[in-house]
Structure formats: C-alpha cells, structure tokens
C-alpha cells in the first residue's frame, strides 16, 4: 500500500470487490447496532441517546405526512357505547415501497410535535415491537422508525375516534465488509472500519454513520453511497473506498490491505539487548508523523514504504531510515552511535 492518502484512494478502487444481492429481511436483520436521527427530514442518519426525552430542536419540522402511507378507519365504540375520545395508531415498517414488512430489530420513538423550530421536542414513548399499536390523544406527533443505522422520521396526525395505520418505508439495505491482508483474514481485533455517508457537516467533512465497525457483520443502512475507511493496526495501514447500498439488497465488499509488521529496538551493539524506556517516533521521508510509542520492543503494523524512526532515551536521540515491503515481518535495530 502506498504511503500517501491520495495514492491510497487510487489503490482502494482496485482492492475492493463488491457483490450485490437481493436478500430476505432475515439476512439484513443480523446487523448489530441501533441508531436514531439527529436532524430533520424524511430520512435521517446519525444518533441521539435513546430515551433521553428530548429530540434535537432542528427535528421539530419534519417532512409532511405521506397520504399513501396512511390508512384511517373509525374506531369501535367503547364498552359503555360511547365514542372513544382518543385515536389508535398502528405502526408498520417496510424495507422498500413494494418490499416486505420488517418484523424484527425495530425501535420506534414517538415525540410530541411543536411548531417552534427552536424548541426541543419531548420524547413521549419508545417501542421495540416490530409493529406496535398505540393509543394517543388527537393531534400531531413526530415518529422515528430506526432499523440499525437506517431510519426514517415523519409527522403523523391522530384523529379522535379513528384507528390509523401508518406505514414507514425505510428504503434500507445491508452492507457487509470482509477485510483481507495479503489474501488472508487477519485477527478481528486488528481490523476496524468506519462508514461515512455522502452527507457533509458544517466543516465539509463526510458525516460518520458508524465508527469502529467489525468485519463480517451486516450493517443496516439507508440506501445511498457510503465510504468505507478500513484500518489495519494502529498506524497508517488504511484503505478507503466508496460503495453503494441499495434498498432491499445486501452489498458485500471485500477490502484488501497491504501491510508489514515491524518491531523496534534500541541497542548499544548489533544484535544486542533492547534498552527499556525508549520513546519511538516514526515519520515519512517528508516528515509527516505516522505513530509514536514507548517501550523496549514495540511492534506496529505499517503500510509498505520508506520511513525514518527516532529513538529517544536517557542516553540521547538516535535515528535510522528503513524500508518495509508488503507482507514483511521485520525487526529494526537503532544503534546508539
């Protein structure tokens, strides 16, 4: 893997294998983490702490209720023959417009509506059933349906004496990432990747949807284009690539890393014993920092390339240049001279 991020990106395009397939809901529902919205709109990504009782002020003005997703029928009279004063709402989530109903892994959050865009919106209840039926007083409410990292938020209207069925179409798919190093799957604790959306924050950076994700786990996401940032080890062995998640489908991406493993030691003579309490700094030839560590024999995973290492101890500061090849397991001795 080349050292610089621009070259890394070009390499990533040739080291990511994508497989797209239509899948049943059972396959997509094996993903791990839940999420909920952090901004207004019919589809939101991000997270706010569950059951906090407050929704961000910006979420107070969601998109309008979609008539095609709402069915209203009169409610039956109460036991004493009088008409009910409240309304009843059944919530249903679909993967796609014409897709199947989601029957597990859903989290519903119902908020009181407000017309003040600056006001925080109160969380009224959280339901973890697939299709809950709830009784509400007449009025407007904001409902968020979360399915893993896929979610949708919109407004509903509850009418006195009516039973309403509200359909929420998440347009969700799945993303499963497999990571290889020299064609072999590395230990799980050495690999992690982030998923970034195509949306931008105020600093024009991509919005992080999921951080520290593990390989071979299906992540439920809204349909869209995402960037995978995969890291092997704790230094600069990194691959980036864009993938597309389609509603109702599972995207499988294989990311291939190039890397080398290196152990550093500060010695008074060639082949000598490593000196303790040594501070290590690794840089690229142009002086860009790569990693720092402390110890007698620190081991790190680096992208192939040429580096400069500095060892600092009570006896002074010592430097050495070295080069790593893909797949190499090396020991770099820095001689005190």
Q: Order of SSEs, N→C?
A: HEHEEEEEEEEEEEEEEEEEEEEEEE
Record field, number of beta strands: 24
Structural class: mainly beta
Query: What is the number of domains?
Result: 3
Question: Could you walk me through the main structural features you see in this protein, from its secondary elements to its overall organization?
Answer:
The protein contains two helices and 24 strands. The chain has 337 residues and is mainly β. It folds into three domains: 112 residues, Immunoglobulin-like, CATH 2.60.40; 116 residues, Immunoglobulin-like (Sandwich), CATH 2.60.40; 76 residues, Sandwich (Immunoglobulin-like). The strands form six sheets. A five-stranded antiparallel sheet has the order 2-6-5-8-9, with no helix packed on it. The chain has a four-stranded mixed sheet with strand order 1-17-11-14, with no helix packed on it. Strand 19 and strand 20 form a beta hairpin. The protein is elongated, with a radius of gyration of 27 Å. It starts with a helix and ends with a strand.
List the helices and strands and how they pair.
Layout (H helix, E strand, L loop, with lengths): L4 H8 L3 E7 L2 H4 L25 E2 L14 E5 L12 E8 L11 E7 L8 E7 L5 E4 L2 E9 L2 E9 L3 E8 L2 E10 L9 E10 L5 E8 L4 E5 L1 E9 L4 E9 L3 E9 L2 E8 L11 E5 L5 E6 L4 E4 L2 E9 L2 E9 L4 E7 L2
Parallel strand pairs: 4-10, 11-17, 18-24
Antiparallel strand pairs: 1-17, 2-6, 3-10, 4-7, 5-6, 5-8, 8-9, 11-14, 12-13, 12-15, 15-16, 18-21, 19-20, 19-22, 22-23
Overview in brief:
The chain is 4% helix and 52% strand. By secondary structure, it is mostly beta strands. It folds into three domains: 5-30 and 172-257, Sandwich (Immunoglobulin-like); 54-169, Immunoglobulins (Immunoglobulin-like), CATH 2.60.40; 260-335, Sandwich (Immunoglobulin-like), CATH 2.60.40.1120.
């Amino acid at each position: 893997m080349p050292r610089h991020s621009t070259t890394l990106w070009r390499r990533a395009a040739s080291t990511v294998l994508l497989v797209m397939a239509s899948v049943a809901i059972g396959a997509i529902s094996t993903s791990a983490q839940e999420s909920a919205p952090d901004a207004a709109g019919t589809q939101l990504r991000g997270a706010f702490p569950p059951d906090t009782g407050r929704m961000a002020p910006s979420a107070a003005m969601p998109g309008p209720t979609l008539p095609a997703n709402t069915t209203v029928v009169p409610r039956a009279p109460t036991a004493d023959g009088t008409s009910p004063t409240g309304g009843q709402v059944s919530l249903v989530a679909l993967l796609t417009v014409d897709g199947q109903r989601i029957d597990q892994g859903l989290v519903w959050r119902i908020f009181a509506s407000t017309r003040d865009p600056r006001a925080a919106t109160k969380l009224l209840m959280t339901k973890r059933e697939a299709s809950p039926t709830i009784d509400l007083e007449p009025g407007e409410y904001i409902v968020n349906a979360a399915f893993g990292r896929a979610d949708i938020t919109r407004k509903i209207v509850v009418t006195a004496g009516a039973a309403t069925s509200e359909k929420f179409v998440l347009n969700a798919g799945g993303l499963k990432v497999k990571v290889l190093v020299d064609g072999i799957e590395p230990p799980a604790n050495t690999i992690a990747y982030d998923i970034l959306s195509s949306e931008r924050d105020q600093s024009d950076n991509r919005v992080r949807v999921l951080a520290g994700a593990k390989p071979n786990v299906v992540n439920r996401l809204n349909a869209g284009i995402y960037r995978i940032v995969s890291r092997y080890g704790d230094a600069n062995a990194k691959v980036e690539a864009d993938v597309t998640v389609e509603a109702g489908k599972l995207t499988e991406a294989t990311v291939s890393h190039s890397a080398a493993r290196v152990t550093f030691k500060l010695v008074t003579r060639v082949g000598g014993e490593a000196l303790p309490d040594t501070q290590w700094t690794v840089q690229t030839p142009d002086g860009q920092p790569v990693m720092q560590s402390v110890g007698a024999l620190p081991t790190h995973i680096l992208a192939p390339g040429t580096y400069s290492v500095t060892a600092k101890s009570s006896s002074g500061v010592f430097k050495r240049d070295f080069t790593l090849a893909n797949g190499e397991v090396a020991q770099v001795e820095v001689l005190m001279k």
